[in-house]
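Protein modeling request. Please complete all fields; requests missing the sequence field cannot be processed.
Requester role: graduate student
Desired output: 3D structure, token encoding
Chains: 1
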Amino acid sequence: MKRLLIILISCFFISESIGQEIKKVKIDELQKIIAETKTPMIVNFFATWCKPCIEELPYFLEEYAAHKKDSLRLLLVSMDFKDEFQTKVAGFVKKREITAPIFWLDETNADIFCPKIDSSWGGAIPASFFINPKTGYRKFYEEQLTHEQLKKEIMAILK
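Delivered output (159 residues):
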């Protein structure tokens, strides 16, 4: 009982210190979130150990802040390893003061979860999915995006 209390208190202080919870999700739950969105959404798959992911992340955060007024949603989905997500991702979020929602994908079989996001996804990251349910816009990238590419996609998704 004492051990459980210590764990709960630790989790509380970790979530308070980073300012947000890093929610663990299965692919079906993530699919549901995407399917139920009413506004334009970008889902960016990254990992803290992925250099191209880290290089493009500031662009996503900058554009997300600039387009909140347009109801643009950004979901960051960590692909970090299970034994590191609570410490590494939490520290990463805190250090970079990330306010966009962050999920950790609790899946290990890319052959199952990748095609549920996009049939062309081979499992590489960074990967980004752009969707606007009102216009039917849907585009998937399995590569690092430049700031200009991202701006172009955001303009297209917001049309």
